[in-house]
Design a protein that fits this description.
Cofactor (chain B): [2Fe-2S] cluster
Strand order of the largest sheet of chain A: 6-14-7-8-10-9
Shape of chain A: globular
Low-confidence stretches of chain B: 12-29
Helix content of chain A: 25-40%
Low-confidence stretches of chain A: none
Oligomer: heterodimer
Mean pLDDT of chain B: 83
Mean pLDDT of chain A: 93
Number of helices of chain A: 17
Helix content of chain B: 10-25%
Family (chain B): Belongs to the adrenodoxin/putidaredoxin family.
Radius of gyration of chain B: 17 Å
Strand order of the largest sheet of chain B: 2-1-5-3-4
Strand content of chain B: 5-15%
Organism (chain B): Catharus ustulatus
Radius of gyration of chain A: 24 Å
Pfam family, one (chain B): Fer2
GO molecular function (chain B): 2 iron, 2 sulfur cluster binding; electron transfer activity; metal ion binding
Number of helices of chain B: 4
Largest sheet of chain B: 5 strands, mixed
Number of strands of chain A: 18
């Protein structure tokens, strides 16, 4: 009798445990009854930007962690933290171990201004600043200088608004969040009382969204300074705009036209924030002794075209704005992971079609490394489902052949062991999680994040000292390699 | 006022998909063994999912409590921090919904496939007048692809 053996379960590997990685894994697991999915993450701890990007005072946005945790607990899902793909294990090695590999490693770098003075003390990328207050290990020693009274944030996106809000929020609001203790201490000593958000284009091109703008307008102890002149002539464009753009612009206009609230006698002067439009940075100006930033020289621009595709063109006029703190919030940027993976350096993405990496069968991508570093969690969720669909289609159609035997983590484990790398399991993460929650309890915080990778590993049981030291030294090597 | 036989027939009719009141009876005058409200969800792939909820349950509650198979629904768990519970309502139901707040509209503005009768499911609570209504789950991405489901394969 001829008995056909059942097809082996397809083994899928996902690189990156942020929303893209988890939503891709979730969709594959849900819509394929047998697939096994392993999620790799370079840090010991999972969740990517949900943990390290979403602002501390936006805890509801982090609720997605619950659905990711459920996915990680699936019998057919495994999590391996503390594994840097591209160094501890290569993509070709993963392709030998799995039927399909999905790259969801996001955007760990940022776009640079490319102007003189960009590297002066007092100038930081928004990405590093956000990483700092959110406890990202590589930014824990940022020590931003908050001793000046004016900060300039270059960029008109939600990240820029997040930073403005964290800089100007009353301490008692931040104290009960999961912001790190050390950044809370630094903010307690901060002298910053004025924040300008500067953008190259106009009000109709702002990238931030209305909820975040409203939050800023309603921030206790802070006053919005918007110039009504910036909005003249926009009435008809606003009238014809789609509802989201219309409401957003109308809120800015309303705020610009509002009279400032009467100050009570003896009340402390409120902190201030404002939007400046059609200004493009030319140079960060140094202090007299050249030791730090003291201001930014800006080109005034005019707009060519309209709507989202409007371009900012210098008029020839310039302006100087004084400030001691400059935050460049002009976008995140992905980096190439492995020579075996094609990468479009100009666009900063992996060339793909519906998540199928061009020219490399069995290789897929999802999230920011696929589409570019914009969008909120729902954007990434939909995108990840799209890539998962491609994987499922290919499995169903035989384009992805799941019949050859693949060893999955079994093969990767021996590679990692030979390189002295000890992965962190999901239950290890839950021990780290419990330690952070316990530490935060005394201070009334949801958690006190552990920011030192060695401490994270120590909180995960059965980590030997020798391996910890090896990993710590390679972590340092990795962060210094990026040159920040 | 009504004979027990009439009450029984009323219950039978309610249980079917006819969707009209027998004898013009106002359902609030008559007590049923369960005052559940039936909602039909048209999923992204065209499947019709039918579930029940109690008055006051949000549509997110209905989806979660009945474990309805709608990918990615309710990511922020009803805290107005996302737009993944976006639903499209029938005109006559939409007109009678409670007024939308700025907070809901701010998040709804970010939803894909926004329509004139869109609302966030976590903000809409069931009322008896919604019984048998049909809501549509909007497309998630601009170009809809035939969804692949191999979850029943061994």
């Amino acid at each position: 009798r001829w008995l056909s053996s059942p097809a082996p379960a397809p083994r899928v590997c996902v690189v990156g445990s942020g929303p893209a990685g988890f939503y891709t894994a979730q969709h594959i697991l849900k819509h394929h009854g047998g697939a096994l999915v392993d999620i790799y993450e370079k840090l010991p701890v999972p969740f990517g930007l949900v943990r390290f990007g979403v602002a501390p005072d936006h805890p509801e946005v982090k609720n997605v962690i619950n659905t990711f945790t459920q996915t990680a607990h699936s019998e057919r899902c495994a999590y391996y933290g503390n594994v840097t793909v591209g160094r501890d294990v290569t993509v070709p090695e993963l392709q030998r171990a799995y039927h399909a590999v999905v790259l969801s490693y996001g955007a760990e770098d940022n776009r640079v201004l490319g102007i003189p003075g960009e590297n002066l003390p007092g100038v930081y990328s928004a990405r590093a600043f956000v990483g700092w207050y959110n406890g990202l290990p590589e930014n824990r020693d940022l020590k931003p200088d908050l001793s000046c009274d004016t900060a300039l944030i270059l960029g008109h996106g939600n990240v820029a608004l997040d930073i403005a809000r964290i800089l100007l929020s009353p301490l008692q609001l931040l104290r009960k969040t999961d912001i790190t203790d050390s950044s809370l201490a630094a903010l307690a000593c901060s002298k910053v009382k004025r924040v300008w958000l500067v953008g190259r284009r106009g009000p109709l091109q702002v990238a931030f969204t209305i909820k975040e703008l409203r939050e800023m307008i309603n921030l206790p102890g802070a006053r919005a300074v918007l110039d009504p002149a910036d909005f003249t002539g926009l009435e008809s464009a606003v009238k014809d705009a789609p509802r989201p753009r219309k409401r957003l612009t109308e809120l800015m206009m309303k705020t610009a036209l509002e009279k400032p609230v009467e100050m009570q006698a003896g009340a402390a002067a409120p902190r201030e924030w404002g939007l400046k439009f059609q200004r493009s940075p030319l140079e960060v100006l140094p202090s007299a002794d050249g030791s730090r930033a003291r201001g930014v020289r800006l080109a005034l621009t005019r707009l060519e075209g309209s709507g989202d595709s409007a371009k900012a063109v210098p008029t020839g006029d310039e302006e100087e704005l004084e400030c001691g703190l400059v935050l460049s919030s002009i976008g995140y940027r992905s980096l190439p992971l492995d020579p075996a993976v094609p990468f479009d350096s100009q666009r900063g993405v992996i060339p793909n079609s519906s998540g199928r990496v061009e020219g490399v069968p069995g290789l897929y991508c999802s999230g920011w490394v696929k589409r570019g570093p914009t969008g909120v969690i729902i954007t990434t969720m939909n995108d990840s489902f799209d890539t998962a669909q491609s994987v499922l289609e290919d499995l169903q159609g035989g384009v992805l052949d799941a019949s050859p035997f693949r060893e999955g983590f079994g093969l990767v484990e021996s590679i990692l062991r030979s390189r002295g790398v000890r992965p962190v399991s999901f239950s290890d993460w839950q021990k780290i999680d419990a330690a952070e929650v316990a530490r935060g309890k005394a201070a009334g915080k949801p958690r006190e994040k552990i920011v030192d990778p060695a401490e994270m590993l120590a909180a995960a049981p059965a980590a030997s000292k020798a391996r910890q030291l090896w990993v710590l030294s390679t972590c340092e090597l990795y962060t210094s390699r990026k040159g920040h | 006022m009504y004979s027990s036989k009439s009450l029984y027939m009323l219950q039978l009719l309610k249980a079917s998909d006819l969707g009209f009141s027998f004898l013009g009876a106002d359902s609030s005058n008559i007590s049923y063994s369960e005052d559940k409200i039936t909602v039909h969800f048209i999923n992204r792939d065209g499947d019709k999912l039918t579930a029940k909820g109690k008055p006051g349950d949000s549509l997110l509650d209905v989806v979660v409590d009945n474990n309805l198979d709608i990918d990615g629904f309710g990511a922020c768990e009803g805290t107005l921090a996302c737009s993944t519970c976006h639903l499209i309502f029938e005109d006559h139901i939409f007109e009678k919904l409670d007024a939308i707040t700025d907070e809901e509209m701010d998040m709804l503005d970010l939803a894909y496939g926004l329509t004139e009768t869109s609302r966030l499911g976590c903000q809409i609570c069931l009322k008896k007048s919604m019984n048998d209504m049909t809501v549509r789950v909007p497309e998630a991405v601009a170009d809809a692809r035939q969804s692949v489901d191999m979850s029943k394969n061994s």
